[in-house]
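Pasting as-is:
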Amino acid sequence: MLNIIWIFFFISAFITALFKLFYLGEHAIFTELMAALFAMSKTAFEISLGLTGVLALWLGIMRIGERSGFIDLLTRGLTPLFSKLMPEVPAHHPALGAMVMNISANALGLDNAATPLGIKAMQELQTLNPNKETASNAQILFLVINTSAVTLFPITIFTYRAQLGAAHPTDVFIPILLATYMSTICGLLAVAWVQKLNLWDKTILAYLGGFSLLVAGIIYYFAQLSQADMLLQSALISNLILFTLIIIFIATAAYKKIDAYQAFIEGAQEGFQTAIIIIPYLVAMLVAIGVFRASGALELLMNGLRFTVLQANLDPRFIDAMPTALMKPFSGSGARAMMVDTMQTFGADSFAGRLSSIVQGSTETTFYVLTVYFGSVGIKNIRHALACGIIADFAGIIAAIFIAYWFFA
């Protein structure tokens, strides 16, 4: 899928440039394309280089969280919920632990740990699947929850925002939390409706009710504030929560006599390696997006969408962040590159820059996760997995737009 998208950007840029050259007489168009090609490759390297320190910091902190047992704590806390949502999975089955650990790793932004744990969970669920080529109810529910991206600690987004000059890189934390809640709850409701799950079970109601009350409390609190106070409080609370988590990780590690410093060093080394690894991927996607934008193809696409929005008498400011939203279901790295491109073009603290960050954190890459997870166990008939995943994506994007207007417009 990513290969198709990457090729599409270049072919579309070439066709658009040919049209401008021969029909509009823009003789400099190919010069602009080549300039964009070289400029974006340089920019991608500079961004990756600048990410090194911040990635080393956050992955070092998260390694302390892993060693201190925070993921294990989340696992024990969420296991009763998964047992009720997936009655066909026996109690204490290895699939439950792998699923909860995957969700916990995703929530904490541990992408490297989340994917192998997700594949492991899908393989364990496959052992309970009577029809090996058809997705079971439990496998579909797990995949949809995974793709709706329960994000508690969106490290990557904070990192890019810091690198691209955001005054308060974490000021999108509360909006992301609200948007990802809407994505997850809508995905869960869609699966529950198809699979006829009993959401009135006391355990399920307790968990969903607790999460919903927390989100309702956040909404109520911010609804009482003025626009200026909302921005101030959002940044303050976000930073307080995140730094408190860091202190909890370190304090727990100290209590358990874990070498927090060494754990941080190990995580920071991984962060350094990650920054090096992403250079070719970021170069590949940013140069493709760069020529797509320089050719005018992206502008044509956005102008068409903007015209439709204006005809409906709606505020068109959200349009500039829509490339990230359109890319997100198909490619995580592509959406990330779109987010970076949006922040570079309009500014990290612009409305579009913040909205693209919220969209990036509100959902996961549905087609990628579906392909990798189901492909790892040989499933061909995905049943309602894609439809429910897209519902979750759509809900997350719509929620992100409304929340961005509420907080930042």
